[in-house]
Design brief:
Blueprint lengths: L19 H12 L2 E2 L11 H13 L18 H15 L9 E4 L1 H13 L5 E6 L4 H8 L3 E6 L9 H7 L4 E7 L11 H13 L3 E5 L24 E6 H4 L8 E4 L2 H11 L10 H11 L1 H24 L12 E5 L8 H12 L1 E2 L1 E2 L19 E5 L4 H11 L2 H4 L3
Parallel strand pairs: 1-10, 3-4, 3-5, 5-6, 6-7
Antiparallel strand pairs: 2-8, 7-8, 9-12, 11-12
Amino acid sequence: MPSAPQPSRPRVTPLHPPNVFETMTRLALRHGAVNLGQGFPDTDGPPWIRALAAEAIRSGSGPAGTPANQYAPGRGDPGLRRAVSAHQHRHHGLSVDPDREVVVTTGATEGIAAALLSLVRPGDEVVAFEPFYDSYAAITTLAGARLVTVPLAAPDFLPEPAALEAAISPRTRILLLNTPHNPTGAVVPAELLTRIVEVCARHEVLILSDEVYEHLVYDGTHRPVASVPGGWDRTLTVSSAGKSFSLTGWKVGWVTGPADLVDAVYSVKQFLTYSSGPAYQPAIARALEDGAGFLAEQRGAYRAARDELVAGLSSAGLHPVVPAAGYFTVTDLAPLGVSDAAAAATELAERAGVVGIPVSALCRPPATPGEPAPLASWMRWAFCKSPAVLAEAVSRLQRLPAALGA
């Protein structure tokens, strides 16, 4: 018997294609390439931190008998909020009220999303320095706002206050700042941060500061935007445990700032995840309190890994930027005859057996079809890998000239 005709429905098109990190990871798996694209460590964080969460999950009970497998408080575990407050004071001299000026989020990415969705309205503009973490553009679009970018120039990739001021319009609501910077590893010094805050104050612009790499600084010193003169009153600061403690899968982040701005973030966050990670949050509280030794050890290991990867890229005929912080180095592939790193990614995976992230994927597409993408010939490479993986990657990088026909 023929089936009855089915009613038609609208064709559904994804709002965004798979992000570049997923795309490059698939490419690495397909070709058995070393994945220096996505920025995650291939070794886990300290066993003692993981043991705290594991025991809480097993027993069902966290500190003071709090449920470890049920909803955490919407604003975050009180112990973690107190630990974040103490951390901000100990490291940065900031006095943060754990009850009113801290909200725990499902990673820094949710914190950024909740901040933008709560503070930006359709027709507003968000200014960001380019290149940028790709979620900035996606969430700005979801908020109905327009992303305005200010290019960062090689080799130092530091923001120019005059260029920032030129990009601000009466519609500008927020400056989205990232220091230490992904993907370049630049650390914005305090004097420059102060000038940026002055520009934002003149134009009544809020600042959303992404500082997830705050504990991965190898050269210089990280200063939070909120700690420079005039910074606190207009700044929401986002950070997380994922990068600091090599626990990216736990997705434990936080947002700090003036109470009214944090309230705005929570007003949206409660309808995204409401809460998450009830067993992870107390473990991260302990990590913030007692993890200084691990943070120092990890900085030393990553500094050595950075130097090894930079040396490997240099020996392949490139001139990589030596990052002051973070997980990544960037380099221009133009000396090897590459004008489009995105187009060359498959060749690199097939012929050299290594995968990076084209920096152009972390920039806005060109306004005019056929116009070269910003930093089109640049590639980002991650060094947050084990010594064995990094050694294999460096060995394979020596194939770059032959793989690209240079």
